[in-house]
Specification:
This protein has 13 helices and six strands. By secondary structure, it is an alpha/beta fold. The radius of gyration is 22 Å and the shape is globular.
Length: 316
């Protein structure tokens, strides 16, 4: 791969080294130290063919992608912030004399990742790095799903909607978009994920996401299934799935109510990544059209969540 080299920090970079928001600088320093950048860059470099025009450094582009996630930036906003904010330029490795990648460069880079099919490899690299630091609990897997909205478009023009997104009903409300399914460690780190159209049932991917689990599987009543419970017990895995009433027995027994209450505290951990995605990172609506584009975007979002979550798991 023919990779361009960013300029070394010069005199003016040294004179401005102390400028910038102290809180942002401190956070970016911690995030920078928490990511195995070279390990992530290695499979991406394989996607570049020949020795043509020098490409932007892969690490610079990766840092820009995650920076956009942590600060909820669109491509035009990311380009402007890299031109405008000293702390952001330092983080991605740009000196004050370097050119700045433009928004088209970010689009091309994401397309390369998507077409290369390496997003799962990148996700696993971050996860293994976190596990290597001893930050995973490995005492069960928590599973849940959430709807990520997509624009519905104008009335009377269904052909202009995202054709991969679908409608579903949630709590009596019609929703349109996709559904993010995640498996979470007891530490609050996401260990697996799927993205589907919104009409897929919450429980569609729980079995494949927990196939290797040996301790316990925890989920809400939408995942309750006798066959699943029986199979988990046969594997020696605790079926930590909350009970729900049936048409024949609408009322739960006292022990079922106690079981559900006990599981509430355990299952609460699965809500932490969703809260970070939607409230901290602004991932309430998809940015792109099409399942594959949004699957890559979900992968990058969850990588950003896991990296940020790992900061709070380190002993103080």
């Amino acid at each position: 791969m023919n990779e361009r080299r960013n300029a070394a920090p010069g005199l003016i970079d040294g004179l401005t080294a102390d400028l910038g928001g102290p809180r942002t600088n401190a956070l970016l320093e911690r995030l920078d130290a928490a990511v195995p950048w070279e390990e992530l860059a290695r499979p991406i470099r394989r996607l570049y063919k020949g020795n043509g025009r020098a490409a932007w450094p892969v690490v610079t582009m990766l840092k820009a992608m995650l920076l956009a996630k942590w600060f909820n930036l669109s491509d035009p906003q990311l380009e402007e912030c890299l031109q405008d904010r000293l702390s952001f330029r330092r983080f991605v490795g740009l000196s004050l004399t370097d050119r700045t990648p433009d928004e088209t460069t970010f689009v091309v880079f994401r397309r390369r990742l998507r077409q290369g099919g390496i997003q799962d490899e990148l996700f696993e690299t971050v996860l293994k790095h976190i596990e290597g630091q001893g930050l995973l609990v490995r005492e069960g897997t928590l599973v849940d799903a959430t709807i990520i909205e997509a624009p519905r478009g104008q009335k009377g023009a269904p052909e202009k909607r995202d054709q991969d997104a679908t409608f579903t009903r949630k709590c009596g409300e019609i929703r349109f978009g996709y559904k993010a399914h995640i498996a979470v460690d007891r530490s609050g780190v996401v260990t697996d994920y799927r993205l589907s159209t919104a009409k897929h049932h919450d429980s569609r991917y729980i079995d494949e996401m927990t196939a290797a689990e040996t301790k316990g599987v925890f989920a809400d009543s939408a995942y309750m299934d006798r066959r699943r419970t029986r199979q988990l017990v046969e594997r020696g895995v605790v079926p930590g799935i909350t009970f729900r009433g049936t048409s024949k027995r609408p009322e739960l027994s006292e022990w079922q109510k106690r079981w559900n209450a006990m599981l509430c505290g355990i299952r609460a951990k699965v809500e932490h990544p969703f809260a970070m995605m939607k409230h901290n990172l602004g991932y309430r609506r998809v940015r792109y059209r099409g399942l594959e584009r949004n699957r890559l975007d979900l992968c990058l979002t969850l990588m950003a969540c896991n990296i940020k979550r790992s900061l709070s798991l380190h002993p103080t």
